[in-house]
Design goal:
The structure is a single chain. With 244 residues, the chain is α+β, with helices and mostly antiparallel strands. It contains 7 helices and 9 strands; from the N terminus they run H-H-E-H-H-E-E-E-E-E-H-E-H-E-H-E. The strands form 2 sheets. It has a 7-stranded antiparallel sheet with strand order 1-6-5-4-7-9-8, with helices on both faces. Strand 4 and strand 5 form a beta hairpin. Helix 3 crosses helix 6 and helix 4 packs across helix 6. The radius of gyration is 20 Å and the shape is globular. It starts with a helix and ends in a 6-residue tail after the last strand. The relative contact order is 0.19.
Length: 244
């Protein structure tokens, strides 16, 4: 009886693992302590006029400890790279996004680092899927100067409540394009998303800064990126701390 029960438990576990593999959602196996977060429908009405948001767009490195409410986070991610139309064009027939990508590759994933852990944004399901139940903001949210820059030359940067980690998916590259060409596209696509976040933050009174200097190898290892994924940039978001 005990052997039969063990066999049933093994089969059940194997089936569950198989389901994860078939779905391609390997992150679930890394973040069993975290639960997926259903985001709220984005509020697409309101906000400041575009020209005013452009006027007030700026980088800000000092943040309060205030958490970003779920509705604001939902709006932020939709503005960054959410779905804004049912079909983007004749090339791929994918739902259209708020930021452009060459050939409609949609090859950038947004990882969301918070105090509770790291999630990856699923725009189609409007969901945050768990990746790792660990606060990685010490790797993604603090300035990481290269050896050529003295530490006293680096401006102070508080730990923001949310860090957006932009990840390029190399598996979506064109078979006829060089690696250098695809990397240029990856940073171009990331830049479009970054500016969307800047404009949303300017409209809603949030602070943000984008950084190239971060501990890329350590961060990629910590969030368990496979070899065909590449962290391009990190962008911190939070509420501004006034500096006297």
């Amino acid at each position: 009886m005990e052997k039969e029960r063990s066999r049933r438990e093994f089969m059940k576990a194997s089936a569950a693992t198989g389901a994860v593999l078939l779905s391609g959602n390997l992150s679930v196996t890394f973040a069993q302590e975290l639960k997926a977060i259903q985001l709220l429908s984005p509020q697409v009405d309101g906000g400041r006029p575009l020209m005013q948001a452009l006027k007030d767009r700026k980088s800000w490195r000092r943040y309060t400890d205030d958490k970003i409410p779920l509705q604001v986070l939902s709006n932020l991610l939709w503005a960054a790279f959410g779905i804004n139309r049912s079909e983007s064009g004749r090339l791929t027939r994918r739902p259209g996004r708020t930021a452009p990508t060459g050939g409609d590759r949609q090859d950038i994933d947004i990882y969301v680092a918070t105090i509770d852990g790291v999630y990856v944004y699923d725009a189609k399901a409007n969901l945050l899927n768990p990746v790792v139940a660990e606060d990685v903001r010490s790797l993604s949210g603090r300035q990481y100067p290269p050896p050529t820059v003295p530490a006293n030359m680096v401006p102070p940067l508080d730990e923001a409540p949310v860090n957006l980690i932009y990840v390029w998916d190399d598996s979506k590259k064109s078979a006829t394009s060089s690696e250098e060409h695809m990397l240029r596209l990856a940073f171009t696509h990331t830049g479009s998303i970054v500016q969307n976040v800047y404009l949303y933050c300017a409209s809603e009174g949030l602070a943000t800064v984008v950084r190239l200097w971060f501990d890329k190898p350590a961060l990629e290892k910590k969030i368990k990126l496979p070899p065909d994924q590449y962290a391009t940039l990190v962008q911190s978001v939070g509420y501004p701390k006034k500096v006297s």
